């Protein structure tokens, strides 16, 4: 059941794209991440041009984040003051990333840069997650209590001036820290087509010291606005947003998330973190192989 993607400039099997969105949706429901860090590599593996994969994945994440924000808002799981600071930083990072994306696209280096960023970030995060999950599982099997980490922000965050009170997060820190964090996430969202949740959530917990009760909801709140801004940037600068591709992915991810959420309730969190870490490392390894493996055709010709 083939369907032509006008921006990508190729025909794809509609059921395969919906299935890819469904797979990412299942993982999103299981692990509480946006799934953009898996959507973009899977699209690239399928043959979608990296620039179109990045832009369209950001569009899909925008739609998928709306329901998550509404659900967390009803449970008072969103720190709106912290969220708006993150959004402000994310908007700045998104527009800066848009110009960087366009410059890399003109130089013909965008494919290589996206691949290297994925290998470095996913590889390091996957290793850290695997180590943490493995240590927790060893402690459980030996009968030792798992030590809870003290909720504290980094020393560099404490040294920043102009402190504000973020009551729902239980913090009294400078807004410059979440502003810079949001800008970094916005930049990566444009360059990599990720929502940034797999980077933002650990940084909010271990870097800012936020309460885990509001971390996921606040992260989704920021992701919603930043990916919307990213979609606008890509639509006006690189013109790489394929709305047909984004809609197909959204159909699959919304459906798959329901099954993933139900499955997550039957599995221990430590096993879920270990499975996610292995998936992240597999994707990073596949991206690294693509960067170093000699292709069958060294040169390709594309009509503009």
From TrEMBL:
Alphabetized UniProt keyword annotations: Cell membrane, Membrane, Transmembrane, Transmembrane helix
What is the topology of this protein in the membrane according to its UniProt annotation?
Multi-pass membrane protein
Q: Which GO terms describe its cellular component?
A: plasma membrane
The subcellular localization recorded is: Cell membrane; Membrane
Q: Which Pfam family, giving just one, matches this sequence?
A: TauE
- Residues crossing the lipid bilayer are 12-38, 44-71, 83-104, 110-130, 179-202, 214-234, 240-259, 271-289
Q: Which PANTHER family match?
A: MEMBRANE TRANSPORTER PROTEIN MJ0441-RELATED, MEMBRANE TRANSPORTER PROTEIN YTNM-RELATED
Q: Which family does it belong to?
A: Belongs to the 4-toluene sulfonate uptake permease (TSUP) (TC 2.A.102) family.
Name of the protein in its database record? Probable membrane transporter protein
């Amino acid at each position: 059941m083939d369907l032509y993607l006008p921006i990508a400039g190729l025909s794809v099997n509609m059921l395969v794209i919906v299935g890819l969105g469904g797979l990412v949706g299942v993982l999103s429901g299981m692990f509480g991440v946006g799934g953009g860090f898996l959507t973009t590599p899977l699209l690239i593996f399928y043959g979608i041009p990296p620039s179109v994969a990045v832009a369209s994945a950001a569009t899909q994440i925008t739609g998928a984040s709306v329901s998550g924000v509404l659900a967390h808002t009803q449970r008072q799981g969103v720190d709106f003051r912290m969220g708006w600071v993150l959004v402000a930083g994310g908007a700045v990072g998104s527009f800066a990333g848009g110009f960087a994306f366009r410059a890399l696209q003109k130089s013909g280096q965008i494919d290589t840069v996206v691949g290297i960023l994925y290998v470095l970030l996913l590889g390091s995060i996957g290793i850290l997650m695997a180590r943490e999950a493995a240590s927790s599982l060893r402690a459980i099997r030996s009968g030792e209590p798992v030590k809870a980490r003290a909720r504290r922000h980094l020393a560099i965050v404490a040294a920043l001036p102009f402190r504000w009170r973020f009551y729902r997060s239980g913090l009294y820190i400078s807004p410059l820290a979440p502003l810079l964090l949001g800008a970094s996430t916005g930049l990566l969202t444009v360059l990599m087509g990720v929502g940034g949740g797999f980077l933002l959530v650990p940084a909010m917990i271990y870097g800012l010291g936020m309460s885990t009760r509001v971390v996921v909801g606040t992260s989704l709140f920021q992701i919603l606005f930043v990916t919307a801004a990213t979609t606008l940037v890509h639509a006006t600068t690189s013109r790489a947003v394929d709305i047909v591709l984004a809609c197909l992915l959204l159909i699959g991810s919304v459906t798959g998330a329901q099954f993933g959420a139900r499955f997550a309730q039957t599995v221990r969190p430590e096993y879920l973190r270990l499975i996610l870490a292995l998936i992240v490392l597999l994707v990073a390894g596949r991206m690294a192989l693509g960067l170093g493996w000699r292709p069958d055709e060294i040169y390709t010709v594309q009509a503009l």
